[in-house]
């Protein structure tokens, strides 16, 4: 199945009966003038967004999206390949900004009577491409570094954390330098301690007067 057919199948499934061309557009042979353009606008279908969860007003529970994240990613991929990204609803895998940019890049027709005629012909020939108003609020997750295309290391102090001995090397060197600065003094104190305790190591140790048994 081609990429365009995947998007077309999705649109027809969501539109349902509204995907059929209206009888007025199917029977008419002459297109309306600019004066009656406001009366004969193509109706916009209002459909619930199948890419976001839905709240049940009766039970107060949230129903999961109609399409899983994997299915949404596949639809977005196929829409990018076929150039029909503007036909998809916004969701976790595609933002409103991307859809608006795709729609703006695809709209090369100047507004006017000729644009209305061309849009009606296109909608009559391919009713699954008619505009849809997707209902539901899409909460976009703000990701650091998404605007510059580097989300992996955005907001981090260093790019690679390295080994633990590398991360603690600077602190360890400072402590080592501090200890080495007073090392001769501490060695001298260490030796004097045992000299005071046992001035003559070869002689038997002196016992305290009030020595007690260990039991």
UniProtKB/TrEMBL annotation:
GO terms for molecular function: structural constituent of ribosome. InterPro entries: Ribosomal_mL59 (IPR037507), Ribosomal_mL59_dom (IPR040922). GO terms for cellular component: mitochondrial large ribosomal subunit. Pfam families: Mitoc_mL59. Residues 7-192 form the Large ribosomal subunit protein mL59 domain. Residues 195-215 are annotated as: Disordered. This is Large ribosomal subunit protein mL59 domain-containing protein. It comes from Suillus plorans. The lineage of its organism: Eukaryota, Fungi, Dikarya, Basidiomycota, Agaricomycotina.
């Amino acid at each position: 199945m081609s990429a365009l057919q995947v998007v077309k199948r999705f649109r027809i499934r969501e539109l349902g009966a509204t995907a059929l061309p209206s009888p007025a557009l199917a029977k008419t042979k002459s297109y309306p003038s600019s004066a009656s353009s406001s009366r004969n606008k193509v109706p916009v279908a209002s459909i619930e967004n199948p890419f976001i969860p839905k709240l049940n007003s009766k039970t107060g529970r949230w129903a999961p999206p109609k399409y899983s994240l994997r299915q949404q990613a596949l639809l977005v991929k196929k829409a990018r390949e076929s150039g029909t990204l503007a036909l998809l609803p916004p969701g976790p895998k595609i933002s409103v900004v991307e859809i608006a940019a795709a729609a703006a890049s695809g709209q090369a027709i100047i507004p006017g009577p000729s644009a209305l005629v061309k849009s009606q012909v296109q909608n009559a020939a391919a009713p699954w491409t008619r505009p849809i108003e997707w209902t539901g609020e899409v909460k976009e997750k703000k990701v650091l570094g998404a605007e510059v295309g580097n989300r992996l290391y955005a907001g981090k102090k260093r790019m690679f954390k390295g080994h633990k001995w590398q991360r603690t090397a600077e602190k360890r060197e400072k402590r080592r330098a501090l200890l080495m600065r007073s090392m001769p003094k501490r060695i001298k104190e260490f030796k004097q301690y045992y000299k005071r305790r046992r001035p003559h190591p070869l002689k038997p140790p002196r016992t305290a007067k009030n020595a007690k048994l260990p039991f």
